[in-house]
Amino acid sequence: MTQAVEPAEYDVVVIGAGPVGENVADRARAAGLSAAIVESELIGGECSYWACMPSKALLRPVVARADARRVPGLAGAVQGPLDTAAVLAHRDTYASHWKDDGQAAWLEGVGVDIHRGHGRLTGPKAVTVTAPDGTERRLTARHAVAVCTGSRAVVPDLPGIDGARPWTSREATSAKEVPRRLVVVGGGVVGVEMATVWGALGAEITMLVRGKGLLPRMEPFAGELVAEALTDAEADIRTGVSVTSVQRSAPDGPVTVALDNGEQIEADEILFATGRAPRTDDLGLETVGLEPGSWFTVDDSCQVEGVPWLYAVGDVNHRALLTHQGKYQARIAGAAIAARAQGVPNLETGRWGAHAATADHAAVPQVVFTDPEAASVGLTLAEAEQAGHRVRAVDYDLASVAGSGLYADGYRGRARMIVDLDREILLGVTFVGPGIGELLHSATVAVAGEVPLDRLWHAVPAYPTISEIWLRLLETYRDGGS
After folding, report:
1. Which of 239, 384, 385, 465 is positioned for an S-S bond with 403, CB 3.0–4.6 A?
2. Distant-in-sequence, close-in-space partners of 403: CB < 8 Å, separation ≥ 6
3. Per-residue pLDDT tens over the stretch 418-462
């Protein structure tokens, strides 16, 4: 028999305690509102334990070794294999050993009440939390409920998939041993990053990509340069192929992967990095007139269409499935919730307003932490042309910049900026090359700030750094090159 406990009322109730939910609750508290957060797993969410933090902790020694091997006088000192045990231990530390005490203490420290269990909407502004012991508690929100439950990896419904025990991003970032042979299905960010990690730790990598190349959401040269590096590292990349079935005949045996071209591949593990779905299946959306299992449709303040007290923030609204964008949305949504609760008559919901997540449309940054790194913000050339802008792509070889040669011998990389010819501002920038991840924020400022090119000309890059690429791109544009 389910036991109910005393109900509680708050100004704001947040479902999901990942980075997005934490930020919504924190912004509500900072504005003087009371807030509660509901979480069924670990406080800190996917990013902290199975995505951003563990994956980047795994990638850092891989990339650092690759960089060191390209530096004269240092290369000979780093020729041995990586210390796998130390790399995995480093990963475990950054995943907090899959314990959330620190994150829980932070939330409690800012005055947010934590309710552990599964949260479901049970009507307007009402959330029922079922705790692990089966007890239920009804939470009521005076002003807003924010759904911040994120997304989950999608595993295709293939013959044999249930018994094959495939990896998703969770298993790939938390595995305790290096598989001898790993098949990676998918050529997006998760696929290339995990191929980079486990290949460097000794696994034989086979990548199976349905499309024409890697990183299809970036400029084509990004995927090409990353593919070259993975191939140099002895990964077998096969494009234009699909998996038709998988089979693992014994619990500890190999997995056999059948392809649509008739081939079969045998591996020890198979990772499906083939997309994400919203975690909205069992949230009680039907009780407020919404479709369970679907992405939310929201405005720029992350308010759900047709349900003014409900907000959907982060992955669940499908605007930009990136932790930093979700946290950005959380700051916007938190400010909007507080303003509406305080009766502010006119919210700043126009372009670049305090209550509008404009960057989701115009200036989303992303870094892919492979070797080489790939980083982009804003629109690609194809996206800009499809949107009807009159644009020009300006390209430059990053290896020709003085700072890149000092960074590494044999540096390979490329940069592109997309110029709006009518307004003479940047719509997008892409960098590919070692060490360019930290260069991306300068591009993000230029795109989000809509900095005129004649003003950007006066932002002088320090010599000799890789950031001199800005001068070279602007010179190329001024001189009529492409």
Report:
1. 465
2. 463, 464, 465, 466, 467, 468
3. 999 999 999 999 999 999 999 999 999 999 999 999 999 999 999
The torsion angles phi and psi of 290, rounded to 5 degrees, stand at -115, 160
Residue with tokens 């693992």: 248
pTM (2 d.p.): 0.95
What DSSP state is assigned to residue 464? Answer: T
Q: What are phi and psi of 281, to 5 degrees?
A: -65, -45
Backbone angles phi and psi of 471, in degrees to 5: -60, -45
User: CA-CA distances (angstroms) from residue 290 to 120, 149, 415?
Assistant: 13, 16, 44
Neighbours of 369 (CB within 10 A): 21
String of DSSP letters for 153-215: E-----TTHHHH--B-HHHHHH-SS--SEEEEE--SHHHHHHHHHHHHTT-EEEEEESSSSS-
Q: Show the domains of the chain with their CATH numbers.
A: 4-44+100-152+278-359 (3.50.50.60), 161-274 (3.50.50.60), 372-478 (3.30.390.30)
Cβ neighbours of residue 188 closer than 8 Å, sequence gap 6 or more: 214, 215, 216, 217, 273
Give the largest Cα separation in the chain, rounded: 77
Side chain identity, residue 62: V
